[in-house]
Write a structure and sequence with these properties.
There is one protein chain. The chain is an alpha/beta fold and 198 residues long. The protein has one domain: Alpha-Beta Barrel (Aconitase, domain 4), CATH 3.20.19.10.
């Protein structure tokens, strides 16, 4: 996955709470192949109902500032895929659905938790066209003359900075895995199948 360090630019302001994963990507689209991306399905039904909705299938800002409990509802990794495929790299909100936040971190999408009043200030700045900077190494969000510090689990931070998904994290230990397997073949030769598979 693409490493996350610093993202800066305009942001989308989504001033609503309890945006669930079915709003982010309606369930009927989860049967579609990922090969063409899920960006066309991002907030599909909301965009039909609200033509001026701030997020679309392409050209979405890299930063989204939302309301409380973003990504609640069913466990749906497709919600993270849809946001990522549309170009969103970071969502800032007062809180997230637990499963959504876990899926986000494993797919290169940074979730930043800030208090509601700070999120409201950032949404106002975004609506006014101000650029917002999300600096993961320094754990800061900056907009205009304001700086907001945020917390993040050190392990998740490392994975995002280094671009390590679960497979990449495993492959980072490839030498240790190979050494263990070689030693295991010697130490437990009785457990190693013969060349004919027996």
């Amino acid at each position: 996955m693409t490493p996350f360090t610093v993202v800066s630019g305009p942001a989308a302001a989504l001033d609503r709470a309890n945006v669930d994963t079915d709003q982010i990507i309606p369930a009927r689209f989860l049967r579609k192949s990922r090969t063409e991306g899920y960006n066309n399905f991002l907030f599909h039904d909301v965009r039909v109902a609200e033509p001026d909705f701030p997020l679309g299938p392409s050209g979405s800002p890299e930063i989204l500032v939302a309301g409380a409990n973003f990504g609640c509802g069913s466990s749906r990794e497709g919600a993270v895929y849809a946001l990522g495929d549309a170009g969103v790299r970071c969502v800032i909100a007062p809180g997230f659905g637990d499963i959504f936040a876990g899926n986000a971190g494993k797919n290169g999408l940074l979730t930043v938790v800030l208090p509601e009043d700070r999120c409201a200030e950032l949404r106002a700045a975004a609506a006014d066209g101000a650029d917002i900077t999300v600096d993961l190494p320094n754990q800061q969000v900056r907009a205009a003359n304001s700086v907001y510090a945020f917390e993040i689990d050190p392990f998740r931070k490392r994975c995002l900075l280094e671009g390590l998904d679960d497979i990449g994290l495993t492959l980072a230990n490839d030498d240790a895995i190979a050494a263990f397997e070689a030693a295991d073949r010697v130490g437990r030769a009785w457990a190693v199948p013969d060349s004919d598979g027996t």
